[in-house]
Amino acid sequence: MEIKVKPKKIFKTKLFQDETKNYFNKVFINLFKKYRLKPAKGGKSFEEKVKSGEIEAKDLPDMSYPMHILNGIIPSLKVLENRWLNKGLIDEDYDDNDIKMLLKCLLIAFTFHDINKLHNEIDLKSSIEKYFEDDLKNLKIELSEEEKDIVKYLILATEERTRYVIPDEKLPTRRGLNRLIKDDLIEIIHLADSISIPIENYTEIAKIWKKLKEYVDVNVFYFDDIPYEVLSRFIVERLRENVDCYVISPRGFIYEGNLEIDENYLIKSFEEFLYRNTEKMVKIDRQKAQLDIFRFIEISEDRILRLIDSLDDSIFYKDISKKDEEARDVFTKKIEDFSEEEFRKFKLLKLLLQLTPTETNEKSIKKLKSKFEEKYFKIDKYFDLDKDFVDRVKNADTGLKNYLKLYIATKKGLNEKEILSDLITLLKTNYSGSERVNLKEIINELLGYAHLNGKKIKEIKFEDIGSKKNICSLCGRESSIIATENLCFGFKPRGFTNRTVVSLSNTKKNICQLCLTEVTFRKLIFGKKENVQAVYIDAYDYFIPIMDENLTKYIESVSENIGLWDKDAKAFIKAIYGFNVKVEEELFPFLMTFVDISKQIDFIRFYRKILDFVYETGFKFYLTYPFNPDKVKKETIIFDYTIKSFKKLGWDKVRLDEIEKIRNEFELLWKLGYALKGGSKSDNIIVSLFNDYADNPMAFYFYLFKLSYPLSFAEKYDLNIINQRIGVEKMNIIEKLADIASDIEWAKGSASSKTSMIRETLEVLKIGVKKGYKDEEIKSLMAGMLYRKYPYSSKKEKIEEFCGVLYDELFKGLWKGKLPSKKELRYWIYAFAYHYDLKSKEKRKEQKKLKDDEIKESQ
Q1: Is the pTM of this model over 0.90?
Q2: How far apart are CA 516 and CA 521, in angstroms?
Q3: HSE toward the beta carbon, residue 214, CA cutoff 13 A
Q4: In this predicted structure, what is the pLDDT of residue 548?
Q5: What is the rounded distance in angstroms from the CA atom of residue 217 to the CA atom of residue 626?
Q6: Nearest CA among 812, 816, 825 for reference residue 759
Q7: Residue/partner pairs of 644-651 with CB below 8 Å, 24 or more apart
Q8: CA gap 821, 695 in Å, rounded
Q9: Angle at which helices 186-195 and 97-111 cross, to 10°
Q10: Rounded distance, CA 58 to CA 46, Å?
Q11: Which residues contact 126 (CB under 8 A, 6 or more apart)?
């Protein structure tokens, strides 16, 4: 499933619209592709410098360079546009070449305002001198000399210490352009830099608001730390539909104008969302009809008729009987022959007959059902049914018998209005009292977590803590709604579990109406799948509402090419959150979805897709347990739930500047695993490879030697990334031993011949250690074995050197005088074998080259 992005018109004037569109289509897209993994803030390298004390600073959340540009420039340009409109410099259709040039220079200047960070330099001025011209060419930017001077002036003006490096004389003076540059553009570029800051929680969007408020009359709406992620995002989305947003985040937005918080509109929006997901809120089978949608929405004739019209007709009679084919065929034909009026009555009667009672109101429902059974469902007529057939079905199972009752009741020609009236009575009784969810109360309580311009909109009213019998299993407040399996999910006999979605046992658990609403919305997103995890993907923790043309197409194509979501994940599209999301084809830019990765191989495959997606976009990715809320992410990739091997490798938390390296490492393992798998349908070899590699990275070489031609595979890739994971100290010893061994004898063809030298020497070492021999005795014993194997006096010195390194540096040094496990020894042997083979190959080439050179000289 591909991600679709909806563009948003941001600016009021044609000048700003055209220049920004041109910038994003021609400049920013190239910047995005080239520097999407370059941190402007945060990153692993920065984190390590902070930890080591090399720099005195705070370790900030990751922010890519393109996002830093995007998040700063758009709100600042909106400020500049308003300023120039108020000054009368521009109007909605104004198109002036000089003003257009200044706007272009401002955009390019902010693009390069941290040019030193793009090239890992400290000094801004020297970075401009060294890289500016080349960077213009790389991003395909064409500037006149005058424009270059303005851009350089603005870049250096971003920092106080370099503000006056370029003299004012280089600025154009015609029409007072120099004053506009000094009075307006410098201020705007400072604003852009100051508001594009990493935030550490969603409430810090208020910091950005305070900075913007110094320049423009804007307001901020946001939710404080709130556990109800889906409901809060839903409200944010609905509230920002009709305001002019400067900044948006999953939990709030900064906007210009008046915000109307219309609770009736929010209630209607909630109900419409539920209606769009009717089929997931309603379960109708042969014996039961669960209509939990009516917990939330008003029960009326119109709502009931709308419900039955929205459901697929087949849901009312698709499962008549699996065993009794005759009865199934008879009833199917009879029902399909109903007139439109009869079929509507049939559907209403089915709901009336089979409505599933709530736990709280079960007794009242049974009384009403008994009354309606007598009124509607007596089998006292046959109509066009055969008497023997009726007698047989009367004694059949409840489900089949229900269809007999429904058919006869439908043919009786009962009054539809009366049926509807009785169904309304039944539904209102079933979903009354504590079983009824009051959406007005829900919205009021959610708004208790919300802030407007830094002040709480409403006070949160904390309910009493429930007793053991009536406590909400999620939040602990008093509640009497029984959490049934088909109503919600995530419950165990001992209470709620956030770790996995599990089936409900016979033990009754309660849930309050607010938690039930959140769980219901999440259930609509997750569907009926078990073992799912929640996924949050953000372009950034806050974002500017502009994604247009080339950038839009790029993001969409990346998602489509990777195939990020399978068909089951389409359930999420009804709950995607972004700027004015109306239909499933539109997404911008905060996404919540789910994934089922309960099997290790599924997890590994999914992780590969995520690495590819993040590598191509730099977007942030957070996977967590099914009911956890989103959070501001310090790292670019965070997995709260992960397999053990990935946690050992440190792949559960990945900084922006680590993405490429980890992706390369992962791909190397993945390709080796698939080469080993060959035509096998089993994925066990891939899972084993990742698990063993996490325990000991030298396992890579053990698996490599399972291939028929390990060197041929390895030559295609850079194995330094594996060797770095193994560690410098270990690799130095392996390479040293391999170099000495290749001087004793070049490696031969078979795997056993490449391992024999170190394998047999280690066997002698084991014997010597076991018998308690002294150091020199053991080394002599090892050397003696190798003398017999390679009986050449010219090799004696190298054999002794080999045994000395193996014993002194490896056994006594790295191993601390203790032999590793059999499994680890095996990894050491094959790591040596690979490098021994590699060194031998290199020396063969050297010798051949020498011989060829000698032949040439002799000729």
Answers
A1: no
A2: 9
A3: 13
A4: 53
A5: 39
A6: 825
A7: 644/691, 644/694, 645/690, 645/691, 645/693, 645/694, 645/695, 646/603, 646/607, 646/690, 646/694, 648/694, 648/695, 649/693, 649/694, 649/725, 651/607
A8: 12
A9: 40
A10: 9
A11: none
